[in-house]
C-alpha cells in the first residue's frame, strides 16, 4: 500500500503530465500524417503513449533497483531545478528532445545558484524541516550515475525501436524528387527511486518510509527522470541506424560509471565534477553529430524510383511480414506483371486474390523471389507501404 502511495505522488508531478501530453501529441501527429499520406495508419495504435507507460514503468523499476542499491542521494533543491528546466524544454522545444542537455544544465544552474541558496533558500527550507545538501562530491557523483542510468535506458529504447514500427515521412529533395525520412522520437519519464536527506516527507505523510544511516535520516523520492532522443535518417535502414546509435549510448553510460568511480577514488572539487557531467553531455551531442554525419555520407537514398515501386514501410501483423522484404527494396514484378506505380501494383494483386508472387531487387542490387498467402479479396491489407501515386 505504501508503494502505491509513493507512486501516486510521482504521478502528480507536473513533469510526468507534460511528458505524457507531449508523447500523446507526437503519436496523434504520426497517425494523422500516415492516414493522410497512405490512406490508413501504418499502426493506428498510439505506440508512443503505450511505450511511455509500459517501458517507463519497467525501466523505472530497473533504474530504482540500481539507484537504491548504490544509495544515490540527491538534493531537493536540485530536483526542483531539474523538473522546472525539463518542463520548460518540453514546452518551448516542440520538435526536439534534450534530456541529457537539460540534466547538465540543471547541475550548472544548481552550482551557479548555490551561494544564494545557502544564505536564503536553505534557511527557509530548514524551517520547514527540509534538509539541504551542500554542493559536495558525493551528491554530484550520484548525479553522474543518474545520468548514466538515463543514457542506458535510452540505449535500450533505441535497441528495441529497431524491432518496432518505423514510420516513413515523405519529403521533396532539391531536385523535386520524393525521398523518405525515418524519424525516431520517443519520450519517457522514468520513476527513479532516489534518497533525499531528512524526514520532512515523513512529518507531513506519516506513512512515508524513512531510513537511517548512522545519524542521518533519508526518505525515498521517485525522481521523474526525462529519457529519450530525437534522431532521423535519410540514407540508412532505420533498424541498423538505431542499433548503431544505441551502441554509442551504451558507451556513454559505461563512461559515466567509469568517471564516477574515478571521482570517488580521487579528490576532485565540485567544479571539476560538474565538468565531468558536462563532458558526458558533450559526448551525447558528439554521438548525435556522428550519427548525422554518417547518414549524410551514405550513397543510398530512400527515394522514388522509375523502375518498379519502392518499399518504404511494412505494417505489423500483416501478410507482408512473412515476405522477405526490407525497407528500401524495389518491387519489379507482382504476380509476374511488371509494376511501376502503386496503382499498377494493387491491380496486379487483384489478379490473384489469395496469393502474391513478387520479384524484388534489394539494396544490394540482388534479385530475389518471394511469395505468401494474402487475405482473400483484400489486397490493400497486404501490408506493404509504397510511395503513393502523384496526381497529374
From TrEMBL:
From the record, give the transmembrane residue ranges: 7-27, 57-81, 88-113, 133-158, 218-236, 248-266, 272-289
- Annotated ranges, domain PDZ: 298-364
What keywords tag this UniProt record? Answer: Membrane, Transmembrane, Transmembrane helix
Q: Name one Pfam family in it.
A: PDZ_2
This protein is called PDZ domain-containing protein
Which species does the entry assign this protein to? Lactiplantibacillus daoliensis
**According to the entry, what is the taxonomic lineage of the organism?**
Bacteria, Bacillati, Bacillota, Bacilli, Lactobacillales
Amino acid at each position: 500500500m505504501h508503494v502505491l502511495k509513493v507512486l501516486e505522488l510521482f504521478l502528480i508531478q507536473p513533469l510526468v503530465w507534460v511528458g505524457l501530453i507531449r508523447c500523446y501529441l507526437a503519436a496523434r501527429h504520426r497517425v494523422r500524417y500516415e492516414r493522410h499520406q497512405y490512406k490508413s495508419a501504418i499502426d493506428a495504435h498510439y505506440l508512443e503513449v503505450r511505450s511511455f507507460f509500459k517501458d517507463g514503468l519497467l525501466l523505472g523499476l530497473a533504474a530504482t533497483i540500481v539507484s537504491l542499491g548504490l544509495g544515490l542521494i540527491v538534493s531537493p533543491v536540485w530536483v526542483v531545478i531539474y523538473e522546472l528546466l525539463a518542463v520548460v524544454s518540453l514546452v518551448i522545444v516542440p520538435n526536439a528532445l534534450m534530456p541529457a542537455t537539460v540534466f547538465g544544465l540543471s547541475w550548472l544552474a544548481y552550482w551557479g545558484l548555490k551561494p544564494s541558496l545557502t544564505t536564503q533558500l536553505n534557511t527557509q527550507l530548514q524551517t520547514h524541516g527540509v534538509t539541504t545538501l551542500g554542493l559536495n562530491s558525493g551528491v554530484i557523483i550520484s548525479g553522474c550515475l543518474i545520468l548514466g542510468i538515463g543514457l542506458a535506458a535510452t540505449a535500450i529504447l533505441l535497441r528495441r525501436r529497431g524491432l518496432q514500427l518505423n514510420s516513413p515521412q515523405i519529403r521533396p529533395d532539391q531536385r523535386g524528387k520524393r525521398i523518405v525520412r525515418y524519424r525516431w522520437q520517443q519520450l519517457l519519464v522514468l520513476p527513479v527511486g532516489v534518497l533525499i536527506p531528512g524526514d520532512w516527507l515523513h512529518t507531513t505523510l506519516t506513512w512515508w518510509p524513512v531510513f537511517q544511516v548512522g545519524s542521518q535520516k533519508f526518505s525515498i523520492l521517485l525522481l521523474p527522470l526525462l529519457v529519450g532522443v530525437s534522431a532521423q535518417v535519410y540514407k540508412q535502414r532505420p533498424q541498423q541506424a538505431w542499433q548503431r546509435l544505441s551502441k554509442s549510448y551504451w558507451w556513454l553510460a559505461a563512461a559515466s560509471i567509469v568517471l564516477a568511480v574515478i571521482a570517488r577514488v580521487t579528490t576532485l572539487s565540485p567544479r571539476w565534477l560538474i565538468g565531468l557531467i558536462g563532458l558526458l553531455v558533450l559526448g551525447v551531442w558528439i554521438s548525435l553529430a556522428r550519427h548525422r554525419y554518417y547518414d549524410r555520407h551514405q550513397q543510398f537514398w530512400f527515394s522514388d524510383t522509375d523502375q518498379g515501386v519502392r518499399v518504404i514501410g511494412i505494417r505489423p501483423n500483416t501478410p507482408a511480414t512473412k515476405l522477405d522484404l526490407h525497407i528500401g527494396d524495389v518491387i519489379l514484378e507482382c504476380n509476374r506483371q511488371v509494376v511501376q506505380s502503386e496503382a499498377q501494383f494493387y491491380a496486379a494483386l487483384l489478379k490473384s486474390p489469395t496469393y502474391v508472387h513478387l520479384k524484388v531487387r534489394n539494396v544490394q542490387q540482388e534479385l530475389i523471389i518471394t511469395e505468401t498467402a494474402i487475405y482473400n479479396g483484400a489486397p490493400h491489407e497486404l501490408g506493404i507501404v509504397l510511395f503513393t501515386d502523384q496526381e497529374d
